[in-house]
Amino acid sequence: MELLIEYLNRNYYLLVPALWVVGFALKQTPKIPDWMIIWILLVAAIGFGTFAFGLSYEGILNGILAAGIAVLGHQMLKQTMGSRKEKKEIIKVEKRIDSDCGKEEVNKKKVTIENEDEES
Description:
Shape: elongated
Number of strands: 0
Order of helices and strands: HHHHH
Number of helices: 5
Number of domains: 1
Largest sheet: none
Radius of gyration: 21 Å
Oligomer: single chain
Low-confidence stretches: none
Mean pLDDT: 76
C-alpha cells in the first residue's frame, strides 16, 4: 500500500478517505448492488481528478490510483477484522461441541452454525 501512495499525487490524498465515505454511503443504499460500488468509486475518482486538476493522463491515472488505494485499504481492513471474527466464532463452536455429549446434537449445531455463516 505504501508503494501505491508514493505514486499518488499529494493533491489526491484527501480523495482516498472521501471515497471511503462515499463507498460506505453506497453500501448502505439497498438499490445499489455491492459489485457496482467499486465502479462508481472509480468513475467518481476519475471525474473528480479530471475536474479538479484538468483532463490529463496524470489526472486520470491519479484518480484510478486513489480509487484503488481506497478499495484496497477497505478490503485489507475488512479481511483483517473478518478473520479475527471467524476465529472467535470457531473457538465458540469448539467449546460448545466439547461441552455437548450427544453426537446428533453436535452435528445439528455444526450444520446450523455453518448455515448461519454462509448467510452472513
